[in-house]
Design brief:
The complex is a heterodimer of chains A (about 300) and B (about 280). Chain A is α/β, with parallel strands linked by helices and about 300 residues long. In chain A, about 35% of the residues lie in helices and about 25% in strands. Chain A folds into 2 domains: about 210 residues, P-loop containing nucleotide triphosphate hydrolases (Rossmann fold, 3-Layer(aba) Sandwich); about 60 residues, Alpha-Beta Plaits (2-Layer Sandwich). The radius of gyration of chain A is 22 Å and the shape is globular. Chain A starts with a strand and ends in a 6-residue tail after the last helix. In chain B, helix 5 runs antiparallel to helix 6. By secondary structure, chain B is mostly helical. In chain B, about 75% of the residues lie in helices and about 0% in strands. Classes of the chains: A alpha/beta (about 300), B mainly alpha (about 280). At the A-B interface, helix 2, helix 3, helix 4 and helix 6 of A face helix 1 and helix 4 of B.
Chain lengths: ~300, ~280
């Protein structure tokens, strides 16, 4: 569906995307994970056939977006980071008018709009103006709008940024249903839990480059341990305690507020720490996440 | 709660979609304008009625009285100002639909970027916005023209030629204002500045309320570069039989066409560039 080879986007001296390679296959949910400024949104704009690449190759649905932009966009659904809804129009009108941009007929759109409102669980807000809807509702409306042309690929740029936890879970449910329905999705996010939940496969981006590629579980397996023990000794003592902790684990990461100890068995590691005579203020054992993968790959936290 | 039932990629007829793009943007703009239909109708009718009563009849009575009933150039003051008022209304009504909507589309709601994600090209967005402004222009000049007729400010025989010449002025001016709007990145009161330092002087120095020849020669250039004067001059030839030269009429129409072409030439690349940002 999408093939990128050496894909680059340069603004003046700044290489926003710096020679990345990836492929997205039919029916797949593909994620681009990275912190703000990693080049995710720039990559997404090139996939959306609105921003031309500076260098490299990019093929979407077998076509070159630099040459066949409208033909490609006809079969894409785009859910931008900022919903970009018309605030003067009602919910149903936003869907209807957007469908009209794809040349769709009134006869086709009449039932389609209702189907999409139902999918987005917005039937009751059908006649509400966008400004009368919550952030989560607006985002669901933007997703419904992105599906109005029955796209082959749905592009979601930071789909849950700015939403409260409950709204995020409602949205995840909708996106998971899309995946079950076989819609190919490309998602950018800086939330690792979101990437783990929604993506079959993902790339980790930083500073315009791809640092790693694989399934969420595969990346965690390749770049992190099974479990992570988080211990806090107090801001002043974390750094001083680190050398002792290094003796019980293959890898540790000293963060300003805590130390991450990468081990196969977190509880056993905690016992060893106690045996060394160390008494952490707090301790927590958890499974490794993509956050740990990112930390390993870049030496920085995703939310820096 | 419902699931989706569709075969991805089957709904859109790309060739058809690419053909009708500009009309679909115009459809959107007209739907959006319809939300303000009461204001548009009230402005379309209220503006000419108030102007004609106050300027045409109020000041007109004074002017006509002071000239011993001869008015200006042998016609009543109301008939003298009528073509200028109509051209001004066309320019104002049409340009309203390309100034703030373009700022809205790029800067406030950024809705143009949503349209840009569909089949529609930047050029089609420009054409669609302009087309909707043209519809507003037709409504404005027809309403205004009929009210001018009702006030006997223009002769029946001049109605359609005057409508056309006013629309032409509106078209040229609107293309220029669209180009200006496309270049604005921040809402820093730019339109207020344009209103005070471009539109207001243009209205006052374009021979709207008195013949341009009344002005000292060093101020007449304001009229010469003003689309309002060009339209007013054409209008007065059509309605009150003002003497003219054929070359001057050619200049008037060439000026409208130049504004139209220049406006679009400066708008298309800016839309394309901004939508790809």
């Amino acid at each position: 569906m999408i093939v990128a080879k050496g894909l680059s986007k340069v603004y003046g001296e700044f290489r926003a995307v710096d020679g990345i390679d990836f492929e997205v296959h039919r029916g797949e949910s593909f994620g681009i994970l990275g912190p703000n400024g990693a080049g995710k949104s720039t990559t997404m704009k090139m996939i959306a056939a609105v921003s031309k690449r500076t260098d490299g190759e990019l093929t979407i649905l077998g076509k070159d977006p630099n040459l066949k932009g409208p033909e490609i966009r006809a079969h894409l659904g785009v859910v931008p980071q900022k919903d970009l809804l018309d605030r003067e129009l009602k919910a149903w009108e936003n869907l209807y008018i957007y469908g009209r941009y794809f040349g769709l007929s009134k006869k086709f759109l009449k039932p389609k709009v209702e189907e999409m409102l139902a999918f987005a669980q917005l039937e009751e807000k059908r006649n509400s103006k966008v400004e009368e809807m919550s952030g989560g509702m607006q985002r669901r409306l933007a997703i419904a709008r992105g599906l109005i042309n029955e796209p082959e690929i749905l592009l979601l740029d930071e789909p849950t940024t700015g939403l409260d936890p409950q709204a995020r879970h409602v949205l995840w449910d909708r996106l998971f249903r899309l995946k079950e329905n076989g819609v190919t999705t490309v998602i950018t996010t800086h939330y690792m839990d979101e990437a783990e939940q929604l993506c079959d496969r993902l790339v980790v981006m930083d500073k315009g480059k791809i640092m790693a590629e694989g399934t969420p579980a595969g990346l965690i397996k390749d770049y992190s341990s099974k479990e992570v023990l988080e211990v806090r000794f107090g801001t002043d003592r974390n750094e001083a305690t680190a050398p002792q902790l290094a003796t019980i684990a293959e890898r540790i990461e000293v963060l300003p507020d805590r130390i991450l100890v990468y081990v196969e068995d977190g509880d056993a590691a905690l016992e060893k720490i106690h045996a060394l005579g160390l008494r952490p203020v707090t301790s927590l054992v958890r499974r490794s996440s993509l956050e740990d993968v990112f930390l390993r790959l870049t030496g920085r936290s995703l939310v820096d | 709660m419902s699931d989706l039932k569709f075969v991805p990629g089957q709904a859109v007829n790309v060739r058809h979609a690419m053909r009708v793009g500009a009309f679909r943007v115009a459809e959107y703009r007209l739907r959006n304008m319809a939300k303000w239909w009461d204001a548009i109708i009230a402005f379309g009718i209220g503006n000419p009625v108030l102007y004609l009563v106050s300027v045409g009849i109020g000041i007109g009575a004074l002017v006509d009285h002071s000239t011993g009933g001869h008015g200006i150039g042998g016609v009543s003051y109301l008939q003298f100002v009528a073509p200028a008022l109509l051209a001004s209304a066309a320019m104002q009504g049409m340009s309203d639909e390309v100034t703030f909507p373009v700022l809205e589309g790029f800067t406030w709601s950024k809705y143009f970027f949503a349209i840009g994600g569909t089949v529609i090209s930047p050029k089609q967005i420009v054409n669609g916005i302009y087309l909707a402004a043209f519809v507003r222009g037709i409504w404005t000049v027809l309403t205004y023209g009929l009210i001018l007729l009702a006030f006997q400010a223009i002769p029946m025989v001049s109605f359609f030629p005057l409508i056309l010449s006013s629309l032409l002025a509106g078209c040229g001016w609107t293309a220029v204002m669209m180009a200006v709007s496309a270049h604005i990145k921040d809402d820093d009161g730019f339109f207020a500045i344009i209103g005070r330092f471009v539109i207001a002087p243009m209205f006052l120095f374009s021979g709207t309320f008195y013949p341009l020849s009344q002005m000292p020669i060093y101020l007449q250039w304001i009229g010469w570069i003003s689309p309002l004067w060009h339209s007013t001059d054409v209008g007065r030839v059509l309605t009150i039989g003002q003497p003219t030269q054929p070359w001057l009429m050619v200049v008037h129409f060439a000026y409208f066409v130049a504004m139209f072409i220049g406006g679009f030439a400066f708008t298309y690349p800016v839309f394309a560039r901004r939508l790809a940002e």
